[in-house]
Amino acid sequence: MDPLKIAGKTFRSRLFVGTGKFASGEAMRQAVDASGTEMVTVALRRVDFQRPDSNILSFLDFSKYQFLPNTSGARDAEEAVRIARLCRAASGETWLKLEVTPEPRYLLPDGKETLKAAEILIKEGFTVLPYIQADPILAKQLEEVGTVTVMPLGSPIGSNMGIRTRESIEIIIEQATVPVVVDAGIGAPSQAAEAMEMGADAVLVNTAIAVAGDPVQAATAFKLAVEAGHRARLANLGSPTKQAHASSPVDNILGHA
Amino acid sequence: MHVKLNGDQAELPDNSTITAVLLERNLKPEAIVIELNGDVLDRSKFGDTFLKEDDTIEIVHFVGGG
What we know:
Chain A has 257 residues and is α/β, with parallel strands linked by helices. Helices cover 37% and strands 16% of the residues of chain A. In chain A, the strands form three sheets. Chain A has a five-stranded parallel β-sheet. In chain A, strands 6-7-8 form a three-stranded parallel β-sheet. In chain A, strands 1-2 form a two-stranded antiparallel sheet. In chain A, helix 2 (77-91) packs across helix 3 (111-123), helix 3 (111-123) runs parallel beside helix 4 (136-145) and helix 6 runs parallel beside helix 8 (215-235). Chain A is globular. The termini of chain A are far apart. Chain B is mainly beta. In chain B, strands 2-1-5-3-4 form a five-stranded mixed β-sheet, with no helix packed on it. In chain B, strand 1 (2-5) and strand 2 (8-11) form a beta hairpin. The termini of chain B are far apart. Classes of the chains: A alpha/beta (257), B mainly beta (66). At the A-B interface, strand 4 and helix 2 of A face strand 3 and strand 5 of B. Strand 4 of chain A pairs antiparallel with strand 5 (56-64) of chain B, so a sheet runs across the interface.
């Protein structure tokens, strides 16, 4: 299957995985492994002095994956830039998932602040993957300032509601000149397949895998679904019609005149 | 001496270095990053940086996230 290129890096898997909300570091490691992913996201947080071992680096061999720190928690561009700089200092990594979410109930991204932060961070040499509402104008603006993908949401983070922004994502896919990664709200492998059939270049899934009763099974299902959805897109399927078109020949039917 | 550490008021011995603060809390320097008074502190300076009264220190690391 054709690999995906982002900022000159090649990915054979079009499923990206978040590492949050797993029951344990080991559960996370097994699910990430089962997913076949080649890119994982992490967050940056204050050390909890009562639990100094919550550091994720001890659970995953990051040489196997593209490391993608996120700016989760940032409520405006200034906070996002601050987190980004700390991420880079901590890891040496310039790749960054930019997310700016000022409102905690829906965790929707602030497009204006995301664009502002992207401009600053790109000038500082970051490789920016921005998380956005499925806003085709904003997607274009971010491309123009130099983000390496756009990442429109399907529905709110962790909601498992699936693709509720379909038509807008379709417009983004049609107009984008960078890879489009559907990120947030994907709750089932069928929804990941749906995104890929629409023409998304990849999907990012976290909650749906982490909170499943069997995260390894879920991760495997997502891996297969993303591949199936992408192959379906490559297969160039026929379009729906209102009327029927017979599957068996319409001539030489026994008993017909 | 009195400092702000990870958002909370804290008391540290006078002339503590960053290294000492980390050791006392069982934190490995390789796994964390420090912001001191708003600036990222280079890891090579942990042993030579002496904290002062009213310093604001953030000790952060990577955790699971989406």
